[in-house]
Specification:
Helix content: 40-55%
Shape: flat
Number of helices: 6
Number of strands: 5
Structural class: alpha+beta
Distance between the termini: 57 Å
Strand content: 5-15%
Radius of gyration: 26 Å
Order of helices and strands: HHHHEEEEEHH
Strand order of the largest sheet: 4-3-2-1-5
């Protein structure tokens, strides 16, 4: 009897320790992953310019051990400044015309146009003038009572000979991939106005784990 009690107590202690361990993982893992991503991105941007200069001009810019001495943060600041300057220059008329010509050349170059246009369209869908992932909807593609959460990317599919259809992109959970569907307008439902595109994206990417706040909670 004493042996059974001891075994039960040991089991309870191990179960409690396991629960505490997983609680710690749940708390620390998101923080750790976030810090790792930010630090990795910072280091990549910070090292990009020195590495590029060392690769292009290994002798001219050599200072220590045949390489440019690194000042932490300097490469990052210069990279951000260059991006801002390019953004400002692109708003000037003559520069805009030059970029437009260069853009057309790249989009007509065999092989290159596939990579260039795909990357360009993807970035513009998130941050450019052609934002696409800003209209979350429910789309019915499996059966009458099953709905997927997606984003309208094209409201006109006449180029495919389908007048009353929409193009909807449905992201996968815990992945950067997704599926593109062309569905009738009758199979698409708009979400309530209080749900933003960012909330919808977090909800679907997290597998429905993220809680979407009600409009009343947001106002409070």
């Amino acid at each position: 009897m004493q042996f059974i009690r001891e075994k039960f107590r040991r089991k309870k202690i191990l179960s409690g320790l396991a629960q505490l361990f997983f609680q710690g993982v749940v708390l620390l893992a998101p923080i750790g992953v976030t810090i790792w991503v930010i630090v990795s991105l910072f280091n990549w941007v910070d090292n990009f310019l020195p590495n590029l200069l060392n690769a292009l001009f290994p002798v001219k810019f050599a200072a220590v051990n045949g390489q440019i001495p690194k000042v932490t943060g300097m490469g990052f600041v210069i990279a951000i400044a260059l991006v801002l300057i390019v953004g400002w220059l692109s708003s000037l008329f003559f520069v805009e015309r030059l970029v437009s010509i260069f853009d057309k050349v790249l989009e007509k170059t065999p092989g290159v146009k596939i990579i260039y246009s795909s990357v360009k369209d993807f970035l513009e869908a998130f941050a450019g003038n052609k934002k696409k992932f800003d209209e979350p909807v429910l789309v019915n593609v499996d059966s009458e009572e099953v709905w997927r959460l997606g984003f309208i990317t094209q409201k006109n599919t006449a180029h495919f000979g389908m007048d009353n259809y929409l193009t909807v992109y449905v992201p996968h959970s815990y992945a950067i991939s997704g599926i593109t569907y062309i569905v009738p307008t009758t199979r698409v439902k708009k979400l309530p106005k209080g749900i933003s595109a960012a909330e919808a994206m977090k909800y679907v990417v997290s597998g429905g784990v993220t809680t979407i706040e009600d409009s009343e909670d947001k106002q409070a």
